[in-house]
Amino acid sequence: MSEENVELARRYVESFNEGGLDATEPLRHPEIETFDPPTFPDAGRYVGEAELRKLVEDYLEIAWDGKFHDPEFIDGGDEVLVIWRFRGESGHGGGFPFEETISHIYLFEDGKLRRIRQFMSREEGLEAVGLAKPG
């Protein structure tokens, strides 16, 4: 099952990169849950399509270019860790370019993306799925 989930995650990211959030709607569970990185002040939980859309729109508004750059897919057992580069430009188009490593952890249910947990680094993502290197 985990190999199948890695392929579902790959398909989700590729579809998003090709056609944005609309292209991935058939791949999501209608009650999808999305979690802010736990390091965010007032980290939230968002449920359903409308809340996910609002969250993605907010990311696009603050500077994200809307692409998952250089995604890496790691089998995390029941979940799939997707490590990718978040690129954007500060200052709403008038600032300087920046890039951050982001981790998403996807959980699939009946072939649909059911949950997205977000983390602000590769290390945090690896730790969250139990794959962090000791020491």
Alpha-beta content class = alpha+beta
Taking the sheet with the most strands, its summary is:
6 strands, mixed
Binned strand content: 35-45%
Query: What is the global morphology?
Result: globular
Average pLDDT over all residues: 92
Helix count, DSSP H or I runs of 4 or more residues = 3
| End-to-end Cα distance | 30 Å
**Tally of structural domains:** 1
Strand tally: 6
Widest sheet: strand order?
Answer: 2-1-6-5-4-3
Q: Please report the first level of CATH classification, the CATH class.
A: Alpha Beta
Instruction: Tell me the radius of gyration.
Output: 14 Å
* Strand/helix succession: HEEHEEEEH
What is the annotated CATH architecture? Roll
Which residues form runs of ≥5 with pLDDT under 50?
A: none
Structure report:
- There is one protein chain.
- By secondary structure, the chain is of the alpha+beta class.
- The protein has a single domain (2-125), classed as Nuclear Transport Factor 2, Chain: A (Roll).
- It is 33% helix and 38% strand.
- The protein has helices spanning 2-24, 49-62, 122-128, and strands spanning 28-35, 45-47, 69-76, 79-89, 97-109, 112-119.
- It has a six-stranded mixed beta sheet with strand order 2-1-6-5-4-3, with helices on both faces.
- The relative contact order is 0.19.
